[in-house]
Amino acid sequence: MPRAGELPHYPFGFRGDELADALRGFLADAPVTRVVTNGGWPAWLVTGYAAAREALKDPLLSRSRAADPAMPREEKDPPPLTVVGTMHLLRGAGLREEAVKGMGPRQPHVSLERVREIADTLLARMVARGEPADLVADFALPWAAEVTCELLGLPVRDAPELAGWFGLLATGRAMEEHLFDDWTKAMHHFEERMAVIGTDGLLGRLVALNRSSDRPLGHDDLVEIAVFLFLSGLGNPAAFLALCALVLARDHELAARLRREPEALPRALEELYRWSVMLGDSITRVAAAETVVGGVTVRAGELVLISTDAANRDPAVFDHPERLDIDRPPVPHLRFGRGRHFCPAAALNRAQTEEAVRALLDAVPGLRLAVAPDEIRWREDHAVLLPEAVPVRW
Ligand code: HEM
Description:
The protein contains 15 helices and 10 strands. By secondary structure, the protein is of the alpha+beta class. The protein has a single domain, classed as CATH 1.10.630.10. The longest helix has 32 residues, at 219-250. Protoporphyrin IX containing FE (HEM) binds at residues 63, 83, 87, 103, 229, 232-233, 236-237, 240, 278, 283, 335-337, 341, 343-345, 349.
């Protein structure tokens, strides 16, 4: 078996509209293979669809072990907050169920009308300022920041500053360079906000319930939960909306069809969830005991990286997987995970993104890219893939 230094280094690229060549190669030749992480640890990389589903559902592949500093991991010095820590804190105080409900499709904190209104206002401002505009800075990031502020009950006036915190999702070199200062600033900001949080939004509700919990969380724990939930609401939703916007700005036929056939939009979004490449890191697990993934034996303590991006483009499951085809027969993609950690906000994100995309199609009928498609640059070294900018005209 090769040593860590001789293994291919994961991740392989940062484009959100194209699967890296190396991942395509592994899908064909080795759907479970050995790689080395940013932190220098060897790991199993799972790319095949069947193997990825199996791994996500395998109870022996543990997410909490993947957050244990004694275990191999993706980054040398990972950020201070993890999904494991957040869910563990919420469960400990008996608040997990309430939190999951508050991210679900029937959450009472931000209506779909309001989500649409936020999108309409941003787009009207953008159009009024004149072309060219940038659908990342002028639309996707501020939209996700505002919607999440309202969902969580944070002051919406903070949204422009908070949108800039996408940088907290840095990995690899970018993380080593400035992450510590950025995290200190973010924690400080949320310490102040959580000290005066009202009763609105999911955080307000959790704080109120926490007061009557027989195992209440302390202020620092609530701050951690707030920062983590804010980043969950900002990162993936902004990146996915930016990708949708990029696709619509460069594929005029698709945009025209979705204007003509608005009922096709949910199906188109489902295909975009499949086709998009969103992970600058991976979904990680550590084996609690020996297990088998895609026919390969994984020993206890070994790190497993699951690339749902690659799995969603497995030619064994999707014909011409690189083709964005909104008429393809439905096959469940793995964009929101699978099994016991399935994203609690999946249905909410579907409904909210649909509102935002409809707003874009309606507000900017002549939408087109202001640069050649191959001039779009992607942020390097981030856990969620986002274009630097999507310059457009109309
Ligand atoms: C495009 C949008 C989104 C995508 C692609 C996405 C993706 C995912 C995935 C793949 C997982 C599973 C991770 C694992 O198995 O380890 C997950 C879990 C989670 N997501 Fe999302 N997510 C999105 C939006 C959101 C939003 C808007 C929120 C909250 C405001 C959120 C909160 C969470 C939480 C709390 C978990 C952990 C659930 C648990 O462990 O029980 N997500 N998400």
